[in-house]
Amino acid sequence: MLKLTPAERSTLRAEAHALSPVVMIGDAGLTAAVLKEIDAGLNSHGLIKVRVFGDDRDARIAMYETICDKLDAAPIQHIGKLLVLFRPKPEAAKERSEKRGKGLREVTIVKPSPSGTKRPSVTKVMVKGNERVTQGGSIKRVKPRQASPKKSSLGRG
What we know:
alpha+beta; Translation Initiation Factor IF3; 2 domains; 8 strands
């Protein structure tokens, strides 16, 4: 089981306040499939809420401790039928999110001042996958947009 300081636990409790339950445990109790879903939720979110449908408080406490032991998670809060769990995200998921495809990317453009004596101007711009930044700092499409022969013949007849 992961150990946290009271300050860390308080911060995580505040973050979890706005969350909705990710996993719901029904009448079947804590099955292997439910544990697998909780594990997947912890891997993707790190901090999750679990709702337990059942009136037995002792059973909920036992489930809470079992989940924390088996999945190496930290217990954050247990209020009524809601359980809040935390486990740091694995490094592999962080690396994968840093490798971006052809979506938007942030590019820093540094242009020298016109006089050359002042500081250069630095701007951050979001660039699409089909755009590039030229030497002068302007944004251009990599390939020109294809013109339809049909549209060009109709418009300029």
